[in-house]
Amino acid sequence: MRPSPSSPVPLQLTVIVDRAACCGYGVCAEICPSVYKLDDNGIVYVESDLVPAGLEKAAKEAAAACPQGAIATEEKTGAQR
């Protein structure tokens, strides 16, 4: 079912992680540990590319703080997923 033109379409924040670019600084996981995790080698990963509601601001801040630019965020409408 499609939303009516007057209904706002909810946005969903997604994260894109370039693990090959990650150098293991861990800044992302310090800022937003609910979204960004570090593996045994200190390389970032996410359990889901969808950011839970309420964590959007922290997830964006953590992505922007990455010294290597290994993380990006993207807003998508719920209909695109």
Structure in words:
The chain has 81 residues and is of the alpha+beta class. It has one domain: Alpha-Beta Plaits (2-Layer Sandwich). Helices cover 19% and strands 25% of the residues. The chain is built from two helices and four strands, in the order βαββαβ. It has a two-stranded antiparallel ribbon with strand order 1-4. Strands 2-3 form a two-stranded antiparallel sheet. Strand 2 and strand 3 form a beta hairpin. The longest helix is centred in the last third of the chain and has 10 residues. It is elongated and about 40 Å long. It starts with 10 loop residues before the first strand and ends with a strand. This is Ferredoxin. InterPro entries: 3Fe4S_ferredoxin, 4Fe4S_Fe-S-bd, Fe-S_cluster_ET.
Question: What layout of secondary structure does this protein have?
Answer:
Blueprint: E1 11-17, H1 27-31, E2 36-38, E3 44-46, H2 56-65, E4 71-77
Provide the descriptors you would attach to this structure in a database record.
Fe-S_cluster_ET; single chain; metal-binding; 81 residues; iron; two-stranded antiparallel sheet; alpha+beta; Alpha-Beta Plaits
